[in-house]
Amino acid sequence: MTPQDELDRILARGRLSAPRRERIFEQVERAVRPTGSFLRSRYVLVAGPLALAAAVALMFKPWLGPPGGYSSKGKRTSSIETDCSGGELSACPRGSKLVFRVDGITTPVFFQAYAEPKGADGERVWYFPISGAPAPRIEPGVEPRTLEKGIVVGPEHVSGAYRVHVVLSTLPLSRPDVLRAEGANIAAVETIDMLVVDP
Amino acid sequence: MFKFSDSADFLRQFKQGERPALEKVYLAYVDEVEAAVKRFLIVGARSWGRSARVDVGDLVQETFVRAFGAKGRKSFDGLRDYGPFLGALTRNLLVDWARRSGREVPSDDLDRFSALSSVVVDDWADGETMSVVNQYIVELPVELRELHDYRYVQCRTQEDTCAALGISRQTLRTREKHLCDGLRRRLRRLELAPSCGVQASDGLRAPVAK
């Protein structure tokens, strides 16, 4: 929920205001927009060449993920969804669980992830692989796949901003390989910003 | 309210995901979905406690994304009423969401969540904030108070509001901005919120269902 959503909510005394409803519909429509109507939309005229340029650029640097940004609850970052069970990723209380979902994969992939503190405090925190928990394998499917094991945002996380790096690969990777995130085995790389707060 | 069976053409447009049809269905059912989500959260909050923050709007959005997605549109046959179909889908989504986020699924009769009907929740912020917002609204100049009534109380569309108030879309947007900016400034002045709003955000603060 954005600050504007929050303001609208209290102006509507707890209900969904008309402005919020309109924003929700826009999000829904964008999420489900059929290809045909999308191609007819005027935005394609502008966005099409830009997307093409971006695609060409990515062909030359396929290991680069998109820049991070706070993912609000349930919001997608291309093929990987992340939730903080105790709140939002923009204020995730320590003790919450991170839940990852993967969508749009067509072949089995292995899931590796770690969180890197953005500030001077804190250490890198590994989620997968760790001792006793190798990178889980995710099978493709029609529905998004939720990782069976949620990640507890434990005491090893200091309060502050983290960037969560998720690396999907066709073979399980060692930690150094995850950090490099390069090579033919890499299926996708995502970065997601998270702010850990005191509970 | 409308029925898909009234128009084969409308059903076709909906099935194809055409925006006007989706918008019409959305506007017809968003109240009921919101009410069902709130009811689920109210019951769930008894076991989840007050610390959790959940946004009703996010769950409403997820519901419609699922309902309007290709799979959701395909699975609606157009013969039944859409309400029960959407109600069942809403219930399933909420149960999935609760499980996914590690929350206990409310053990009350889940069918109640699919019975789409209205519910009123009046605990939408802490008492001090509620008081400030109410006072702010009372003190609004007439044109902003009318706008607030149409858009935030009656939840009327831009088109309806513009027609009723005899103003352009641009004027409506400008007035909405003034309305929000004014409240944002007042809340900040009183140090009631870090950005604009309040700590409560969810209907999980043991709201009172009337």
What is the annotated CATH architecture of the largest domain in chain B?
Orthogonal Bundle
Per DSSP, what share of the residues of chain B sits in E-state strands of 2 or more residues?
under 5%
CA radius of gyration of chain B? 19 Å
Shape of chain B: flat
Q: Counting H and I runs of at least 4 residues, what is the number of helices of chain A?
A: 5
Please give the CATH architecture of the largest domain in chain A.
Answer: Sandwich
How many domains make up the 3D coordinates of chain B? 2
Distance between the termini of chain A: 19 Å
**Uncertain regions spanning at least 5 consecutive residues of chain A:** 61-78
Secondary-structure element sequence of chain A?
HHHHEEEEEEEEEEHE
Q: What is the beta-strand fraction of chain A?
A: 25-35%
CATH class of the largest domain in chain A: Mainly Beta
CATH topology of the largest domain in chain B: Rna Polymerase Sigma Factor, Chain: A
Characterise the protein shown here.
The complex is a heterodimer of chains A (199) and B (210). Chain A is α+β, with helices and mostly antiparallel strands and 199 residues long. In chain A, 28% of the residues lie in helices and 28% in strands. Chain A contains five helices and eleven strands; from the N terminus they run ααααββββββββββαβ. In chain A, the strands form two sheets. In chain A, strands 3, 5, 6, 7, 10 and 11 form a six-stranded mixed sheet that branches. In chain A, strands 1, 2, 4, 8 and 9 form a five-stranded antiparallel sheet that branches. With 210 residues, chain B is mainly alpha-helical. The model of chain B is unreliable at 116-121 and 194-210 (pLDDT under 50). Chains A and B meet through helix 1, helix 2 and strand 4 of A and helix 2, helix 3, helix 7, helix 8 and helix 10 of B.
